[in-house]
Sequence to fold (108 residues):
Amino acid sequence: MKTILQSLVDEIYYPISEGLIENKLIKRELTGTTEFTKEVAESKKYKGALADCLISLLQAINVSEADKSVGAYTDADKKFILDWANKLYGEIDEPLVTMGAPKVTICS
Fold:
């Protein structure tokens, strides 16, 4: 049996914490230990949780210096993820997400 939590981990295929996924499941009133079925996959709650997790990928910290990058997505990667999330939001009649310019904070 595959659980809803495991299906999200597998579908996102980029390592994000299970705690973050569990938070999104709770907000969407889903239980991670519930069996993942076709009906669940097609539900508004599951699609919303998946879209929420995808958006969290875009909010991850990217660090770049000279020719080295850690956790950095290309602009094409970001567009693909945002388009995928917005497709899901559109299917469940929720507002689409737009991404603003990146913000930099320097602490001394």
About this structure: Residues 51 and 84 are 8 Å apart (CA to CA). The mean pLDDT is 87. The first strand starts at residue 63 and ends at 65.
